[in-house]
């Protein structure tokens, strides 16, 4: 059954790989599944046709026959369940890998998103400068804990999993802030993720969209 | 295999049911699984013994034989996978229910947590009053979308699932703000969740901890 995902026609990060379709592309590349991409403008994302697929009017979505999914975590979990390569086989190891998916999305990403909001959406507000250190310290608090847990391990558990795919993707959002460089073991962990051939293919594919649509090609 | 979860010895919400162990208790009650609770003080949560179980030093954790899980979403998903009653049987319907779990935790909860941060942690900051309407409007944006999607349906998909358990739990955090009352269909949806016998048992159990430990009983 062919797989179709949606992505930004023109990514606001200019192809830096931070839009969430990159996470789904990466997962599909890890398990070797081809996919089609339907590009959407911001206006199209808020129209009824897309809201039927994604109630929150975002990208990516995932279509496979009659199945329509939204929410990156759910899409990646579905890919990981249907194809081998992203979740370990033993039930306990599998549950641990899934734990890290949720930890990335519900414990580590929220303060990182708050930092993006503070740095971008609220940058012109009168409190912007004074509030920023507070927001950064909340991110550091999570990074301290994650860094301590990871230690000198290669991945979060014994082998690369969808949990690492998600955690690396979430941490990549920190690159513009410079915060990641305060934690050498986390910076190395992210670099290991970026060095995976599947990540490189996913990154190149999302960058090509930006390059092509920017030049009208 | 006996199940042990951790919870606050003295919940900061004074037994209002907003601490995340309530979500896990609710899931265990829905599937009819007994469980033990180990209570932790704030000091104990930051000690090595607990950090071994939960790298981010929070509650709840979940222990079942050799399996140790943290992160509420992962714990509830594990319970839903191991016992019937929280996920539909068809693979597509199951993937949709899981989608709502992730949507609750990664799309709807983050702005709601930001509102709690603004109202509690940053309430004494010079920007508190001026910034609050902005934070509330970000919550309203998600509630608008969710309310439009839910319409007059009873649950998010055709039957109650772990997705509803998570979404109702996330929306319950809005009660002190009064925002939920702006969306009658969402308020009714939350009330349907609270009316479930399993939720009532979970709520009573967490309240009993607060009552008992507060009176030294």
Automatic annotation (TrEMBL), chains A, B:
<protein>
    <submittedName>
        <fullName>Glutathione S-transferase family protein</fullName>
    </submittedName>
</protein>
<feature type="domain" description="GST N-terminal">
    <location>
        <begin position="8"/>
        <end position="87"/>
    </location>
</feature>
<dbReference type="Pfam" id="PF02798">
    <property type="entry name" value="GST_N"/>
</dbReference>
<dbReference type="InterPro" id="IPR010987">
    <property type="entry name" value="Glutathione-S-Trfase_C-like"/>
</dbReference>
<dbReference type="InterPro" id="IPR004045">
    <property type="entry name" value="Glutathione_S-Trfase_N"/>
</dbReference>
<feature type="domain" description="GST C-terminal">
    <location>
        <begin position="90"/>
        <end position="215"/>
    </location>
</feature>
<dbReference type="InterPro" id="IPR040079">
    <property type="entry name" value="Glutathione_S-Trfase"/>
</dbReference>
<dbReference type="InterPro" id="IPR036282">
    <property type="entry name" value="Glutathione-S-Trfase_C_sf"/>
</dbReference>
<dbReference type="Pfam" id="PF13410">
    <property type="entry name" value="GST_C_2"/>
</dbReference>
<dbReference type="InterPro" id="IPR036249">
    <property type="entry name" value="Thioredoxin-like_sf"/>
</dbReference>
């Amino acid at each position: 059954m062919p797989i179709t995902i949606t992505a930004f026609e023109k990514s606001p990060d200019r192809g830096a790989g931070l839009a969430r379709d990159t996470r789904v592309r990466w997962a599909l590349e890890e398990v070797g599944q081809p996919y089609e991409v339907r590009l959407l403008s911001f206006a199209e994302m808020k129209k009824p046709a897309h809201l039927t697929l994604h109630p929150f009017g975002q990208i990516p979505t995932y279509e496979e026959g009659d199945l329509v999914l939204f929410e990156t975590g759910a899409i990646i979990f579905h890919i990981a369940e249907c194809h081998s390569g992203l979740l370990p086989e033993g039930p306990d190891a599998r549950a641990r890998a899934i734990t890290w998916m949720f930890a990335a999305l519900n414990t580590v990403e929220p303060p990182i998103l708050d930092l993006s909001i503070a740095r971008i959406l609220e940058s012109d507000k009168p409190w912007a400068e004074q509030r920023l250190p507070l927001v950064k310290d909340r991110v550091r608090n999570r990074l301290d804990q994650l860094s301590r847990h990871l230690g000198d391990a290669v991945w979060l558990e014994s082998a690369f999993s969808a949990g690492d795919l998600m955690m690396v993707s979430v941490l990549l959002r920190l690159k513009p802030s410079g915060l990641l460089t305060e934690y050498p073991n986390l910076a190395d962990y992210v670099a290991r993720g970026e060095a995976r051939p599947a990540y490189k293919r996913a990154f190149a594919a999302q960058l090509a969209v930006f390059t092509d649509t920017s030049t009208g090609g």
